[in-house]
Amino acid sequence: PKIHDKHDEL
Amino acid sequence: MNVFRLVGDLSHLLAIIILLLKIWKTRSCAGVSGKSQILFSLVFITRYLDLFTNFISVYNSVMKIIYLVTSLGTVYLMYFKFKATYDSNHDTFRIEFLVVPVGGLSFLVNHDFTPLEILWTFSIYLESVAILPQLFMISKTGEAETITSHYLFALGSYRALYIVNWVYRYYTEGFFDLIAIVAGCVQTILYCDFFYLYITKVLKGKQLKLPA
């Protein structure tokens, strides 16, 4: 998974 | 961002605010598990280290900071300002039984063996079980104040909405994160018993009391 997605969620 | 995510985030925020207001207005943290609140603070501290490494959006950063500050504020109120009202006799869950296995698991099952990634994984696993001291406390005393049950309902709804968000994201973006999904489902399942009591009792105007 893209690293962006994980940090996007709280 | 989709509507389930947004409502989930707001529900999470509402939960934290309900708890803070309850403590502040009644000048008392009776019936609230300080151990759960410490665990939630630990969850936010270990997860939001990404504030320093990944900028996503203003919304994202602001919400992370609000969650951090409000959860640390709750711990401060419980352990310092209103410490005299803290019901430590009933808050006897041993948190090392959660933190140690969760720490071990986050070393073993993660996406990437790097410090930040392990801490992120730790925060996800820990969040899934962080409510247990609170539920344990309620089972010990056999009851919860109505305001505390509203808090728990908002907190449980947040994770349930995140599951819907993940289903939606899977179909629209092809995105899924197995660690977050499994932990999120575990977390939501822990609330099911409480949801049942909340709907059958609290919503009908009764106090939440466990059957003897």
TrEMBL record, chain B:
Annotated membrane topology: Multi-pass membrane protein
Organism superkingdom: Eukaryota
InterPro entries xrefs: ER_ret_rcpt
Record flagged with keyword Transferase: no
Alphabetized Pfam families for the sequence: ER_lumen_recept
Assigned protein family: Belongs to the ERD2 family.
Protein's recorded name: ER lumen protein-retaining receptor
